[in-house]
Design a protein that fits this description.
The protein is about 25% helix and about 20% strand. With about 450 residues, it is an alpha/beta fold. The radius of gyration is 22 Å and the shape is globular. The structure holds zinc ion (ZN) (2 copies).
Length: about 450
C-alpha cells in the first residue's frame, strides 16, 4: 500500500497523486501547471499505463487540480471519476474555456500540438463523471476500499476525501480553508480516526498576522475603494474567475448593504460571469452560505457589464471612472482581461489596483507589486512598459487556511503519518519542521516525484 506524487516537480502546479491500496489504484486530481506549456505543464501519468485505474477523484474545479483530466481519462477511458455535483458543473465550464485558451495559444505561441484536447473530448469525458454527495461513503473497486467526501471550504464543491481501507484510513485534504468566506462555508473535516493525513501546505512560508480578521480586511478594502471613487478614479481587482470573483462580488454587495460603500457599477470578465451563472444555478443545491442569493440577478447595487460574446472574452474592456473592475486573471497573466485592462489603468494616479490573493513574483501582478511608484512596469514581454502611477494595495482574502490553523488541525487529528503536498519548497519545509517538533511520534514526509511512500 503506497502513495506517490505524480507531479513533475515539488511545487503547486500539475497536482495529481496516486494511491495504491494493495492493488486498488486511485488517482486524486489531474491538474495542469498554469505557467508551463505542453508536456512540461502535465503530471507524470505515463507510468500508470492504460486502462489500469479503479477510480479517479477530483477534489475541486481549479485548473491546477483539473486541467489535464481529459488526458488522464483518454488513457483510462472506463475509469469512473468521482466528484461533487458543483465540481462537475464548474469543471465542465473550466475545461471548455481551457480548450478555447489553448486554441488561441496555438496561434500566439506557435504551440503546434495545442489544444491538447478538444470540446468533443471534454463532452465525452463527462460521461464517466460520477456525482457523490458529502459524507456518504461509496466503494471504489471491489477490494473493500470506501471513499467519503468532506466539505473542504475553499471554493464551491471542494472536498477532502477519506479512504477507508482494510489496512488503515487515509485523509487527503485537497485545498482547504477552515474559515467561512463570503460564500464558501468553513471546512468540516474528520476530527479523529485517520492514520495518514495528506496535507496541503500552500501558506507554509508566511506567518499569520496576529491582528488579522477577515472583517477588518473588508473594512480596509471599503476605505480604499471609497477614497478612490471620491478622487474620481476607479478600482481594479484582479481575481481568479472561479471562487475569488464570486467571493469578492458578495463581499462588495455586503459592504454596500452595510453602508460602507456607495452603490457602484461593477464590471466582470467573461469567464467569471459564466462561473457566476453556475453558482446561481447551484444556489440551492451546493454547500454554501447565502443559499438562494443569485449573483447575477439579486445584487441590484452592482451593475454588471454585458457578458462578452464567445471568443471575445479577452477583448479590451473600456476604462471608465467611478467603477470597480473585478477581472481575471488573478495574477494578471499575459493576454488575460485584467492584463489587457491594466494598459489603460496603471498610469492614472486617480486609480487604485487592489490585490486580494497570491501573486507569483514572476507574474505581471508580482512584477507590479515589486515596482516602486512612478517607475515603468512590463505587463507583456512583447509590448511597451507602462508607468505605475496608480495606487497599489494588497489584501488577504485567501481561500486557503493559514499555516497555524492547519497546524492546529494536524495536532488535533493525531495521525501517525503526514504527507505534505501543494506547496513551494520553503512552505513544505516549514510544515515538516513544525509538525515533526509538535508530535515526535508522527512521521512527516515531503512528497517528491518518483518517490513511493509506504502507507501500511
Ligand atoms: Zn484550489
Ligand atoms: Zn490548488
Amino acid at each position: 500500500m503506497f502513495f506517490q506524487s505524480l507531479l513533475p516537480r515539488p511545487e503547486i502546479g500539475a497536482n495529481s497523486f496516486l494511491f495504491d491500496f494493495d492493488g486498488t489504484r486511485v488517482v486524486v486530481d489531474s491538474g495542469m501547471h498554469p505557467k508551463h506549456f505542453g508536456d512540461d505543464a502535465l503530471p507524470l501519468h505515463e507510468p500508470l499505463g492504460f486502462d489500469a485505474l479503479d477510480g479517479i477523484v477530483l477534489t475541486h474545479a481549479h485548473l491546477d487540480h483539473l486541467g489535464s483530466l481529459p488526458l488522464l481519462q483518454r488513457r483510462h477511458p472506463r475509469t469512473p471519476v468521482f466528484m461533487t455535483e458543483a465540481t462537475a458543473h464548474l469543471s465542465d465550464i473550466m475545461l471548455h474555456n481551457s480548450v478555447n485558451v489553448m486554441t488561441s495559444q496555438r496561434e500566439e505561441l506557435g504551440l503546434v500540438n495545442y489544444p491538447l484536447f478538444t470540446h468533443d473530448e471534454v463532452n465525452e469525458a463527462t460521461q464517466q463523471w460520477s456525482l457523490r454527495g458529502m459524507k456518504r461513503g461509496f466503494e471504489i473497486g471491489d477490494r473493500g476500499v470506501r471513499a467519503t467526501f468532506f466539505d473542504a471550504g475553499h471554493v464551491l464543491g471542494a472536498v477532502a476525501v477519506q479512504f477507508d481501507t482494510p489496512r488503515g484510513t487515509i485523509l487527503h485534504s485537497g485545498d482547504v480553508h477552515f474559515e467561512e468566506q463570503s460564500i464558501a462555508t468553513g471546512a468540516d473535516l474528520p476530527r479523529s480516526g485517520v492514520d495518514t493525513l495528506v496535507l496541503e501546505a500552500t501558506r507554509g512560508d508566511s506567518p499569520r498576522d496576529p491582528s488579522y480578521t477577515r472583517a477588518g480586511e473588508a473594512r480596509r478594502l471599503a476605505g480604499v475603494i471609497r477614497e478612490t471613487l471620491k478622487r474620481g478614479g476607479s478600482v481594479l481587482i484582479p481575481v481568479f474567475a472561479l471562487g475569488k470573483s464570486q467571493e469578492i462580488l458578495v463581499l462588495l454587495h455586503q459592504l454596500v448593504q452595510s453602508g460602507e460603500l456607495p452603490s457602484t457599477p461593477v464590471f466582470l470578465g467573461g469567464l467569471s460571469t459564466k462561473v457566476c451563472a453556475a453558482y446561481d444555478e447551484l444556489t440551492h443545491r451546493a454547500t454554501r452560505l447565502h443559499r438562494g442569493l443569485e449573483l447575477l440577478r439579486e445584487l441590484p447595487d452592482l451593475q454588471f457589464s454585458a457578458r462578452p460574446k464567445r471568443g471575445k472574452a479577452r477583448a479590451r474592456l473600456p476604462y471608465r471612472p467611478g467603477a470597480i473592475f473585478a477581472l481575471s486573471s488573478g495574477m494578471m497573466s499575459e493576454n488575460t482581461v485584467s492584463n489587457e485592462f491594466a494598459f489603460q489603468f496603471l498610469d492614472n494616479p486617480a486609480n487604485t489596483l487592489c490585490f486580494v490573493g497570491y501573486a507569483d513574483p514572476e507574474s505581471p501582478a508580482g512584477r507590479i507589486r515589486n515596482t516602486p511608484h512612478g517607475y515603468p512596469v512590463r505587463l507583456n514581454e512583447n509590448r511597451e512598459a507602462v508607468d505605475l502611477r496608480c495606487g497599489v494595495e494588497s489584501f488577504d482574502f485567501s481561500g486557503h487556511s493559514d499555516r497555524e490553523r492547519l497546524r492546529e488541525y494536524a495536532r488535533e487529528l493525531q495521525p501517525r503519518r503526514i504527507i505534505l503536498v501543494h506547496g513551494d519548497p520553503p512552505a513544505l519545509e516549514w510544515f515538516q519542521r513544525t509538525l515533526s517538533a509538535d508530535r515526535p511520534g508522527c512521521e512527516v514526509i515531503i512528497s517528491q516525484p518518483h518517490m513511493p511512500i509506504p502507507l501500511g
